[in-house]
Amino acid sequence: MKIFLDTAKIDDIKKGVEYGIVDGVTTNPTLISKEGFKDYRAALKEICNIVQGPVSAEVVSLDSKGMIKEAESLASISEHIVIKIPATFEGLKAVKELNRKNIKTNVTLIFSPSQALLAAKAGATYVSPFVGRLDDISTPGMEMVSQIVTIFDNYLIETQIIVASVRHPLHFVEAAMMGADIATIPFPVLEKLMKHPLTDIGIERFLKDWESVKNK
Ligand code: G3P
Q1: Selection from 120, 136, 200, 103 nearest residue 208 by Cα
Q2: pTM above 0.90, yes or no
Q3: Beta bridge mates, 105
Q4: CA–CA distance, 99 with 41 (Å, rounded to integer)
Q5: Burial grade of 183 (CB within 10 A; 0-12, 13-18, 19 or more)
Q6: Which atom of ligand 1 is nearest to the CA of 28?
Q7: For 88, which DSSP code?
Q8: Chain-centroid distance, C-alpha 37
Q9: Ligand 1 in reach of 133 Cβ (< 6 A)
Q10: How many Cα neighbours within 13 Å face the side chain of 139?
Q11: What proportion of the chain, given as a percentage, has pLDDT over 90?
């Protein structure tokens, strides 16, 4: 399973890439607004240069014409840019046209398997089911992912599934168990994935025992 970082924070992206396990980045207007960039396009370019993999940037138009215009402008920033399009009928129209123009798309704000299937049919490169936000309203988000995986397997659909709105390591592990293509995760969740108290205790004990060998 590929790992994307769900952030626009340059320092965290650099750290993740240095760890050697980050394949891409996803952003959205909320994540971008948190970073207070003076030059949004320059920031996207910098993220693309660091990651050298898919970087999702979201459009804010609601009509397909506006989405396509924004998408063309964003896509000119770097070959790595993927256009995030909301899961609406206007979005589907934009995805169809952007696919024809060889511009990659990530259909976002997906909350049902039917939305994912329609996005794939329109030609989406990626779909992003939001699991945490479904959990928030007492609906199991990962069940939706399992259904999308089954549907895409049934019809050999090539659209890749990005598990998004990941809130904790269990979402990540379940995504991998289900065979999702990608999980996009906030940096604090990435840090939790590698942390284990028994690893820390083990290192401490090895170092202590090594000291006694050294002093003999
Ligand atoms: O990838 C989508 C993500 O940014 C939304 O996460 O935690 O706001 O539901 P959250």
Answers
A1: 200
A2: yes
A3: 83
A4: 22
A5: buried
A6: 4
A7: S
A8: 20
A9: yes
A10: 10
A11: 93
Q: Which helix (H) or strand (E) holds 34?
A: helix 29-35
pLDDT at residue 53, rounded to an integer: 98
Supply 139's token pair. Answer: 């609906």
Q: Give residue 148 CA to ligand 1 midpoint distance, Å.
A: 19
3-state secondary structure of 102: coil
Tokens of 51: 């990651």
Tens digits of per-residue pLDDT, 5-26?
999 999 999 999 999 999 999 9
Contact criterion met (CB below 8 Å) for 92 and 122: yes
Query: Catalytic residues, which ones?
Result: 84
| Whether pLDDT at 214 is above 80 | no
User: Which among 47, 56, 53 has a CA at the least distance from the CA of 22?
Assistant: 53
pLDDT (tens digit, 9 = 90+) per residue, 92-116? 999 999 999 999 999 999 999 999 9
Residue nearest (by alpha carbon) to ligand 1 atom 3: 165
Look at the alpha carbons of 3, 143, 86, 32 in this order and tell me if their dihedral is positive or negative.
negative
Centre of ligand 1 to C-alpha 110, Å, is 11
Pick from 28, 97, 86, 17: nearest CA to 52: 17
**Spatial distance between the Cα atoms of 90 and 55, rounded to a whole number of angstroms:** 22
Q: Whose CA is nearest to atom 4 of ligand 1?
A: 165
SS3 category, 109: strand
